[in-house]
Design a protein that fits this description.
With 302 residues, this protein is an alpha/beta fold. It is built from 10 helices and 15 strands. An 8-stranded mixed beta sheet has the order 6-5-4-3-2-1-14-15.
Length: 302
């Protein structure tokens, strides 16, 4: 049995033992933990950081009640910087860590993160054996998870990461068990804080977007983390119309060799009066919300 599958199938007895260690049970995200130390803003605001990790993705959610959720971790060379950023924000525990899909620009520093913090739940998509990566980066991540004694929950549509009063987080994709493109296995997450919604799409491409549209899930969001670094493979016209974001955040590297973000995507946002923020030009982007209003800041030196 593959290591990923073994991690997904820890017995109930083993989980009860883990409660005595550094990893929490699956419900950890739904309960305020004394192990969580956060630099919480005043007035009960939650913070969403879209970290500048070059040509990669990493988003950190610091909720007003002290829970911390990390989505992706950029490339392997971001590891030390990412650990410093999280510690600067007062993080001691990550209640949930989500690896949207196993490409190195998304899970590259995740092994280091697992090693460096107390970890609650880990979410990752399950790929068919023929598509499961054998890269050093992916193998090190699975080894770090196993060493820490964490359980992996399969990331897929319908999985509830968090539900606590007016704050919730649910996965909208992947909706299928098999895709040709690994990017389409990306875990897509909708975070709702009061009246405001934040959509995180990993590298989900057109096929996954079509499935989400067909699922009749509500895709409307105030802030969209743009799919696949602003590539033309993602953010189709129909998907963009369904989301209708006021703000779009594109995570990509400065002067990247892929020519991202693509002009066709930028024009789509501009024609829809969506305000665009880019990590390659502005650095880390921070969104703060009390559930009624959203404030966006750029943090070029963070």
């Amino acid at each position: 049995m593959r290591l990923f599958d073994r991690l997904c199938r820890i017995t109930a007895a083993a989980v009860s033992v883990l409660l005595l260690g550094s990893c929490a049970a699956p419900e950890a995200v739904q309960q305020t933990s004394s192990g969580t130390s956060s630099n919480i803003a005043t007035e009960g605001k939650s913070q969403i950081y879209y970290f500048d990790v070059g040509q990669g993705d990493s988003e950190f959610i610091q909720l007003s009640d002290g829970k911390n959720i990390l989505i992706d971790t950029g490339t392997p060379d971001c590891a030390d910087q990412l650990v410093r950023r999280l510690k600067k924000l007062g993080v001691k525990k990550l209640d949930a860590v989500i690896g949207t899909h196993p490409h190195a620009d998304h899970i590259g520093s995740m092994a280091k993160i697992i090693d460096s913090f107390e970890i609650g739940e880990v979410y990752m998509p399950r790929l068919p054996e023929s598509q499961t990566p054998t890269t050093v980066t992916y193998t090190k991540l699975l080894e770090a998870i196993s060493k820490k004694g964490c359980r992996v929950t399969q990331a897929k549509a319908g999985v509830e990461v968090l539900k606590d009063g007016s704050i919730s987080m649910e996965m909208l994709a992947p909706n299928s068990e098999s895709y040709e493109e690994i990017n389409n296995y990306s875990a897509v997450c909708m975070l709702q804080i009061g009246e405001k919604r934040f959509l995180f799409t990993g590298d989900a491409q057109k096929e996954s977007e079509k499935e989400m549209l067909a699922s009749n899930s509500s895709l409307k969001a105030d802030v969209l983390k743009v799919g696949h670094h602003g590539s033309a493979t993602s953010t189709t016209a129909d998907f963009y119309k369904a989301v209708s974001p006021n703000t779009a955040v594109i995570s990509c590297g400065k002067d990247n060799s892929y020519g991202l973000p693509k002009e066709s995507v930028l024009r789509r946002f501009s024609s829809g009066n969506t305000e665009i923020y880019r990590t390659d030009t502005s650095g880390t982007i921070k969104a703060s919300t009390d559930g009624t209003n959203i404030q966006i800041e750029v943090l070029p030196d963070f």
